[in-house]
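Chapter review: from sequence to fold.
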Amino acid sequence: MSFSRRTVRRLTAGVSLLLAGSLLGVAPPGAAARDRAEIEIKIATLAPEGSTWMKMMDELDAEIRERTNGEAGLKIYPGGIQGDETVVLRKIRAGQLHGGGFTGTGLGEIAPPLRVLEVPFTFKTIAEVRAVQQALGPRFEEILREAGWELLGWADVGFVYLFSKDPIRSVDDLRSSRMWLWEGDPLAETFLKTVGISPVPLPITDVVTSLQTGLIDAVYTSPMACIALQWFTRVSSMTDLPVTYAMGAVVVRKKTFDKLSPEAQAVVKDASAKWFARLGDATAEENDESIAVLRDRGIEVIALPPERKSAFRDVGREVRQELVGTLFDQEMLDRMLSALDDARAGAGGSAP
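The token string follows.
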């Protein structure tokens, strides 16, 4: 189908730019060139130039510069050219950068309690996630400020699914897999060990080769990333049950944000709220589109019966408690589950 070929080209083009930028150590072409602002907020991200993420961040930057009359602007380094999240955090603390677009792994280093949003097999719909984010948002912003950071906006990756060479239809199937683990992610490590898996920790760059050689035979990622990273060429099935909702956010050091006038701070927050909301909608649409592409490319999307879903969610409940005292406390977990219950009650849904 022409639709799927066009979509795959669009999703994979950004990865080529990302790798080129990483290897050359220079920004890929295409970033908007604008007059220098009085305060340039330097932000690094793994998102490649040409991606929806970067296009919207360019629009956000333009609006901030215009509405603050050049007092503030964003200088964004895309495609991992400033290093992975650990390196970016080190550069921020050294004053070389002011902020970053981080996944849950990076946010967990900054403010571990935020990862309560990523506990496995908890959320069923994006509407639930957004309701909980809204309910806990003020507390999350407090936690970040206490740690010396200012939240500009959520930039979530979306729902994460299991992809594998052999179908994963049950917890036992998952337990027998040779599962990849993203190095340095304590939440994913706790989840997999609770299931009874000894995962294979690898950097993302080694996953395709490891699938090809058989070192691993299963991975977890979002549908869009599965296509963009070419992992779909080495797996045959996707289990249609979200493992987690992969969070993401753009945060800047509070000491940098505080250099802005109160008026400029208000503009940055207002413009960010608008553009990050649009980014969230666009990301959700692209992930839905990616599932259609995966089906078109021969990936079997496996629907689970209710009793199998329930067994996975039982594992999720166990993992939640394992993480209490490690990433978040019981009070934070209770707050999240209470907000989720409220969201489901309002929608007429069931408990987790």
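Two observations follow directly from the output. The CA atoms of residues 18 and 236 lie 26 Å apart. The mean pLDDT is 89.
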